[in-house]
Design goal:
By secondary structure, the protein is of the alpha+beta class. Helices cover 37% and strands 18% of the residues.
Length: 458
């Protein structure tokens, strides 16, 4: 009996000692996950919710910097958004309005979060639509290319804005030209069963590349004028001569680039098609005297210091026939087709702004007379505005590069409609780019020959 009692006591002691260890092995109760706010009906819904979750759901729209004014702006923007390229804008506006109403009439924090997500997702969708990549633009500066921003960036800018209503309005305006053209498009759509004209919609699309702020040049080839902008305001303009499509098949393309310097006393490298059409036949008839009288030189290549070749080394009849090629440049001087100053900016077609000795074209109503490049009416005024001071060549040395204090963007576009003091001004569609289906700008399918002949043309 004593042995049995001893055994039972030992077993009991073992069970008691092992009880805490067994308890430690049992899994701790798992807390129920916090309910997630439902995703809005948007391709950006997941990213928007993640943005809010990382920041513990900031009050962007319902906060002190947002409120009724910002929400009202958003609803207005969404309702008209099909004009901007967001076809589901009205449906998004209805969804946002319902979510806001639920948030305001309930005491449920989840409804408030759901409304915040709905508004931010709709805003991210809209900003991506209005900043979508532009078609048929030659981007000489990739930094100027339109790109649809990630929702994180869109929401970070909205959250940081001192006034959300002002920020939303500024982004949606794009620029002053776009905003006025959109008003015209909306009026047309209201009067025509929801459909605006092709002309205004195409002009609206072409105007999207223009920024709303900053210092930049805008060349409107349809208007045949250059405009100087500062802080979104037109502070001066001048006539320009642009590419002639009818005769040369060389319209000035749509370009977005940045200018970093000007060139005083520039050379002019004669385009290949002009050499064959004009210079070579004249040399065949008149000899080297033709070249000397115009300050032309035959050079070995396009390097900074090419070898100057004797004109007699060229088979000029073969050049006329198209079986031989020659590189010809014109020295600086009064006859030089570049005039006194050239304003280059990177682009694949070699388009640039420049002075010209051919002043009579500026008196014409139609100044589409060049082989693609842009001749400016007053190079001194343009240079003074660009540099903030009067600039000129130092002596007679050719190709004097004068660096700008900072790069100035250049936007070459084609607007047959622009806002004026008393309404919309219209210009003739000389390039035929107001027709739907035409690949206007950098790749115009109606051009008879490729734009590779522009090279260094005036």
């Amino acid at each position: 009996m004593r042995a049995r009692a001893t055994l039972l006591s030992a077993v009991a002691a073992t069970l008691i000692a092992s009880a805490p260890a067994e308890a430690k092995k049992r899994p701790a109760p798992v807390a129920a996950p916090a309910p997630q706010v439902a995703l809005p009906a948007s391709a950006n819904g997941v990213n928007v919710r993640y943005y809010y979750e990382r920041r513990q759901y900031p009050a962007i729209w319902f906060g002190a910097k947002g409120g009724d004014a910002a929400i009202g702006q958003l609803l207005t923007i969404l309702r008209r958004a099909p004009i901007d390229g967001m076809s589901n804008g009205p449906a998004a506006a209805a969804s946002v309005e319902a979510a806001v109403q639920r948030a305001r009439t309930s005491n449920d924090p989840m409804q408030v979060k759901a409304a915040e997500l709905a508004m931010s997702a709709a805003w991210a969708d809209y900003v991506q639509a209005i900043k979508r990549p532009s078609t048929n633009v030659i981007y000489g500066d990739p930094a100027l290319a339109q790109t649809a921003p990630h929702p994180d960036r869109t929401l970070a800018l909205a959250e940081a804005a001192p006034s959300l209503a002002d920020h939303v309005q500024s982004v949606a305006s794009v620029n002053s030209i776009y905003a006025r053209l959109r008003d015209v498009a909306l009026a047309e759509a209201s009067a025509n069963g929801g459909r605006a004209s092709d002309k205004v919609l195409l002009n609206l699309e072409r105007s999207r590349i223009i920024p709303g702020t900053g210092k930049y040049i805008m060349v409107n080839t349809a208007e045949q004028r250059l405009h100087m902008f500062e802080n979104g305001q037109d502070v001066g303009s001048m006539k320009v001569v642009v590419g002639k499509k009818e005769e040369f098949g060389l319209p000035t393309p749509i370009i977005a680039s940045t200018m970093h310097y000007a060139i005083a006393n520039p050379y002019w490298h004669v385009p290949e098609h002009l050499i064959r059409k004009t210079a070579a036949p004249a040399v065949v008839k008149q000899g080297e005297a033709y070249l000397k009288s115009r300050g032309y030189e035959v050079i070995s290549d396009f390097s900074e210091h090419p070898q100057i070749l004797p004109a007699s080394s060229v088979d000029w009849k073969a050049v006329v026939a198209g079986t031989a090629k020659v590189i010809l440049r014109q020295k600086p001087g009064g006859q030089n087709s570049m005039g006194r100053m050239k304003f280059p900016f990177p682009n694949r077609e070699g388009i640039y702004l420049h002075d010209t000795p051919t002043r009579e074209y500026f008196a014409l109503a139609n100044r589409a007379k060049s082989n693609g490049c842009i001749r400016v009416e007053d190079y001194r005024r343009l240079a003074s505005w660009l540099f903030g001071r009067d600039v000129a060549a130092s002596g007679t040395d050719p190709e004097q590069h004068i660096a700008l204090p900072r790069g100035v963007p250049v936007f070459v576009t084609y607007l047959t409609m622009v806002p004026g003091p008393t309404g919309m001004a219209s210009f003739e569609d000389r390039y035929g780019w107001d027709r739907p289906g035409v690949l206007a700008g950098g790749m115009d399918t109606t051009v008879g020959k490729p734009l590779t002949t522009i090279g260094g043309e005036p």
